[in-house]
From TrEMBL:
InterPro entries for the chain: AB_hydrolase_1 (IPR000073), AB_hydrolase_fold (IPR029058), Carboxylesterase_BioH (IPR050228)
Domain AB hydrolase-1: 29-249
Name recorded for this polypeptide: Alpha/beta hydrolase
Molecular function via GO: hydrolase activity
Any Pfam family the entry gives: Abhydrolase_6
UniProt key word Ribosomal protein: no
Keywords: Hydrolase
Taxonomic lineage from the root: Bacteria, Bacillati, Actinomycetota, Actinomycetes, Micromonosporales
Organism the protein comes from: Paractinoplanes aksuensis
SUPFAM superfamilies per record: alpha/beta-Hydrolases
Length: 267
């Protein structure tokens, strides 16, 4: 299966979006990666037995991987518009989203305009101010020029020297990103987490789940998400890389549960 690129409508024009698509069912399962990552974050989905009944789509957000830059500058609202435009090009009966980190915020914003959404799974998706501590707030606090000239390469070096195996994969994707575009996305993401009500948006989407690694600090979300939180043991912020078998097994189980809940609600 090859990676394809298509021009997708975006604010101010069009943007090239690199994507990978496998058609094999009436229900479409879409994976959205995090800040500075790439569609390859979810390569394991294409071989996961638990997802065998779904058509699968992964793609690079604008400013990332093989995709282009947003014509009018990068922010997560514009990225969300690109998501809805991209998904308009794929047939499905039901739509399910699995969104990691920054992708959780972009996915939630986009999902408000997706009437056929049947389930939403956030994988440590950004929701509140405390979720911006790992990278995005540090990027947003720099000027665009400082980040382009120093901050971007400084973080690349930090990832290169990190003992975390997931960071060794992350740095390969991070190097492919456009620094100025990343800066715009970071500033927008921090603003949304600090001043907008992403938890309310998430709750308005209907059936959802929140997946996190056992090594991640998520206690601040327990009063918000309550019994919709599911843990992957032995994993950090990248459970799909740290524990892929357990991760995709859990995703499959939660998708089945969300589908059952949807059928019960429509009965």
């Amino acid at each position: 299966m090859t990676v394809e690129t298509r021009a997708v409508p975006a604010p101010g024009g069009k943007v090239r979006i690199a994507h990978r698509y496998l058609e094999r069912g009436n229900d479409l399962l879409v994976f959205m990666h995090g800040f500075g990552c790439a569609k390859e974050s979810f390569d394991g989905a294409f071989a996961a037995d638990a997802l065998a009944g779904y058509s699968l789509l992964t793609f690079d957000f604008p400013e990332h991987g093989g995709s282009g830059s947003l014509p009018d500058g990068a922010d997560i609202e514009s990225a969300a518009e690109v998501v809805t435009a991209l998904l308009d090009e794929f047939d499905r009966r039901h739509l399910y989203l699995v969104c990691h980190s920054m992708g959780g915020a972009i996915g939630a914003i986009a999902a408000q305009k997706l009437p056929d959404l049947a389930g939403f799974i956030s994988v440590e998706g950004n929701l509140v101010a405390a979720d911006c501590g790992l990278v995005s707030r540090g990027v947003a606090e720099q000027s665009a020029d400082d980040f382009k000239e120093r901050g971007f390469s400084d973080f690349v070096q930090w990832l290169e020297h990190s003992p975390d195996s997931s960071h060794q994969q992350w740095v390969q994707w991070y190097r492919q990103c456009d620094p100025r575009g990343l800066h715009g996305l970071a500033r927008s993401l921090v603003d949304w987490c600090d001043h907008r009500n992403l938890p309310r948006i998430l709750s308005s989407l209907g059936p959802s789940a929140y997946v996190h690694g056992s090594r991640s600090e998520v206690a601040h979300l327990k009063s918000i998400l309550r019994d919709s939180m599911y843990q992957i043991d032995g994993a950090g912020h990248f459970p799909m890389l740290d524990q892929p078998t357990a991760f995709y097994r859990l995703i499959g189980a939660r998708l089945d549960a969300l589908a059952r809940n949807g059928r019960m609600a429509n009965a």
